[in-house]
Amino acid sequence: MPSQIPGVAEPIKFRRLSVLIPVYNERYFVSQLIDQVLQATLPTGMERELVIVDDCSTDGTQTILSQIAERYPEVIQLHFQDTNRGKGAALRKAIAHATGDVCIFQDADLEYDPGDYQNLLRPILAGDADVVYGSRYLSSNYRKVHFFWHTFLNRSLTTFSNLFTDLTLTDMETCYKAAKSSILKSIPIRSDRFGVEPEITAKFSKRGCRIFEVPISYRGRSQDEGKKIKWFDGIKAVFAIIYFRFVDDIYEAEYGKSILYNLSRTHRTNAWMAHTVNPWIGERVLEIGAGLGNITLKLLPRLHYTASDREPLQLDYLQSCFGGYNWMDVARLDLEKEEDFDALDEEYDSIVCVNVLQHTEEDEQALMNIFGTLISGGKAVIIVPHGKWLYSQLDRALGYIRRYSRSDLIVKCRRAGFEMERVFSFNRAGLLTWFVIGKILRRKRFGKLTLKFHDSLVWLWRILDKILPLPGVFLVGIAIKPTSPQPRGQHR
Predict the structure, then answer these.
(1) Gap between the Cα atoms of 95 and 99, Å rounded
(2) Would you place residue 266 in the very low, low, confident or very high pLDDT band (cuts 50, 70, 90)?
């Protein structure tokens, strides 16, 4: 394993904590709570900010908050809702304004103790977790005895949620949730009220987040003491659990990653593609544009494997999945930037580049970067969309700049210095699907059901791939770096 590879994604250094505090009619508790948050011990070197969102309080809470915010202008962000919209809406606004590396949800009453922050942060700071839940039901040194029916309802909802998320949480409804800000900001929160707890749990699960639980102290209050959640919120939570199990709304539109998630669920298609190219892949592999690891998982293990991408969100996900293996790296690489590849020269005997080249403005420069990184005799497995005539608004929506003909791919690879061992079509039946969706129906995305249907019939598509007199929807190029190559760039 290389000891130093410039561009390899380093563990994120968490320097700032954002405490997100939704507030509604808490004039008797909020001042004391804020004092506790400001005084809570944090890991050495970590700063804090409080992002407070008042949900249109009517009892004087807003005046108290304004006075406190004036005393701590460098630490407290204060925002107001025009109407009472609920906890979920307040958290949504708080997340949008958070500037920290990690966020913690904090209720404005005194049920949850900010003294637990260090325990909540520890698994994230250690690099083990993306999300940490503070459980009221795990063993701790001591705890207040809870109300039976409140506990029974919470545990029942948690069990029901676990059935749909395939998690083993002990406390899904807990207020205390700590998460990396990069993840939180990329997740859309649709629930305005208490449905936010099952919603965000379902989305953490679908995103493949590493979720930990830690015990926390809890001093629950009764309805007479001001607790706002009602019995009918439990019924709404049941419907939220079911709804968010079947709706894959797990990325904000600005992140444009929904199609990546949907494609990552086409396990049979990904396995077919990996099986097809596996004979040309050696033991020291660089994968370019690994995304969410759709192909990566199918090609492991290897003597050494580097999964790379240029997008921070994907890098964070890849680091979460594969960062624990000593034979694997996660690298930040832009296929078009030669400087990202310079220090990687002669490291790899194989490079895998699946559906990335069509996104680049300078694809010939990208191919030269691949060429210069391989050892002599090394092979590049390059998969690109096939057929210029097939280009449609579906391609544009996916960020494709071009589709390739067979001659395009061969000529550009040779200009970069490669010799072509083989070029062949892949997924001939998929050409028909792409033509119907992109050219006839003029859609901009694949429906989830369409992808599931196509993926369920991979056994049939593999048979038809051998007999259909059609080009494939993709081209697979096997490019070899000659044993006595000319210097990189001489072939442009």
Answers:
(1) 9
(2) confident
Q: Which two tokens stand for residue 128?
A: 């083990």
Question: For 404, which DSSP code?
Answer: B
pLDDT score of 323 more than 50: yes
Under DSSP, the state recorded for 11 is P
Q: Which residues contact 349 (CB under 8 A, 6 or more apart)?
A: 282, 283, 284, 285, 374, 375, 377, 378, 379
Over residues 92-104, mean pLDDT: 96
Entry pTM? 0.78
| Non-local CB neighbours of 346 within 8 Å, separated by 6+ positions | 373, 374, 375
Lowest mean pLDDT among 135-144, 148-157, 463-472: 135-144
Domain spans in the chain, listed from the N-terminal domain onward: 16-252, 258-480
Distance CA 145, CA 166 (A): 29
Alpha helices, H only, 230-308: 231-246, 258-264, 267-277, 296-299
For a pLDDT cut of 90, what percent of the chain falls above it? 65
What CA–CA distance (Å, rounded) separates 429 from 272? 13
| Closest to 97 (Cα-Cα) out of 52, 31, 138 | 52
Q: 258-480 in CATH: which number?
A: 3.40.50.150
pLDDT of 2: 40
If you classify domain 16-252 with CATH, what class do you get? alpha beta
